[in-house]
Amino acid sequence: MSSKLAFTKMHGLGNDFVVIDAVRQHIELTEAQVRYLADRHFGVGCDQLLIVEAAQTPGVDFRYRIFNADGGEVEQCGNGARCFARFVFDQGLTDKREIRVETKKGIITPRLEADGNVTVDMGVPVLNPADVPFVSESDAYVQPLDVAGNTIAITAVSMGNPHAVQVVADVDTAPVAEQGPLIEHHPRFPARVNAGFLQVVDDHHVRLRVFERGAGETLACGTGACAAVVAGILRELVVSPVTVETRGGELTIAWNGVGTPVMMTGPAVSVFSADITLP
Ligand SMILES: N[C@@H](CCC[C@H](N)C(=O)O)C(=O)O
C-alpha cells in the first residue's frame, strides 16, 4: 500500500538530509523506503535521513533517529543535530532555543544561537579502542592500520559513532575514494567506520574530508570534524578552538581535553518542504 509522507530537505555545509516529523505524523519506514528516499536519481536524495520523534525519557525534549543513505540506522550525526534543532524550532515543535535530544548513543544538547548558527554539545569522545569499537591490543592514540598493503597511522575515536582519522599532507590529493571504502570495511572496525583525512594548516585551522560509513564521501561530516579535532589535539598538532574547513564550508570545534565534551558550532539550512508518495 502506498502512503504520502511530508518531509523537509535540509543541509549542514552540504551534508544533506531528508527530515521527517514523526511527532505530528505516524510513520514507520522500511529499510528499502529509507534507501528510496535517499536515492538521488529515483527518490529525494540525501546523505542521511532524520526522523524526529517525541521523547521517551523524562527531562528530554525529543528523540531523533538517524539513517545512512544505505538504509542502516546509526548512533550519531553532527550536522544532523544542528539541522534537527533548526527543524523543531522553525516548525513550531518547540520554542526552546536549547534542546535536549536523545539519540541512539545518548543525549546531546543543541543550542540555537542569535546569529543563526547552532552550537551542539556533542558529548565526551570515547578513546578506549574496544568501545569505538576498534580491535587493538594497545590504547595508544596513534596506531598502525594495514590498508591494502600500506600501513597508515590512525587515531580511533568514537563520537557516539566510530571514526578513524589519519593525517595527510594535502586533502585535495588524499586517496579518499581509494582508501575510504577499504577503511570503512576494515576487519579491525567491527561496526565499520567513518574514514577521516585531516590536513593541518596551522594550530587553529585544519582541512578535512570524510568518507562516511553508509554514505560515501560527503561535503562535510560534523562528528568527523569533532573526531578529527580530538585526534589533532591528542597528537599535539592543533590547539582548541579549531576551524575545520570542509568542502561544504567551515565548522568551529572546541575541546578542552580527555574527559570533556566536544562543542561544535556551524550552520543549519532548510531548503524546501514537500510531500512524497512512498512506494
Ligand atoms: N554526516 C554525519 C554522520 C552520519 C553518520 C555516519 N555516516 C555514520 O555511519 O556513523 C555527521 O555530520 O556527523
UniProtKB/TrEMBL annotation:
Domain of life: Bacteria
Site residues (Could be important to modulate the pK values of the two catalytic cysteine residues), renumbered to this chain: H163, E212
Active site: C77, C221
Reactions performed catalytically: (2S,6S)-2,6-diaminopimelate = meso-2,6-diaminopimelate
Keyword set, alphabetical order: Amino-acid biosynthesis, Cytoplasm, Isomerase, Lysine biosynthesis
Matches recorded under Gene3D superfamilies: Diaminopimelate Epimerase, Chain A, domain 1 (3.10.310.10)
GO molecular function: diaminopimelate epimerase activity
One GO cellular component term noted in the UniProt record for this chain: cytosol
Biological process terms in GO annotation: lysine biosynthetic process via diaminopimelate
Pfam families: DAP_epimerase (PF01678)
Binding site for substrate: N15, Q48, N68, G78, N79, N161, N194, E212, R213, G222, T223
Matching NCBIfam families: DapF (TIGR00652)
Family assignment from sequence similarity: Belongs to the diaminopimelate epimerase family.
Function comment: Catalyzes the stereoinversion of LL-2,6-diaminopimelate (L,L-DAP) to meso-diaminopimelate (meso-DAP), a precursor of L-lysine and an essential component of the bacterial peptidoglycan.
Descriptive protein name: Diaminopimelate epimerase
Organism: Zoogloea oleivorans
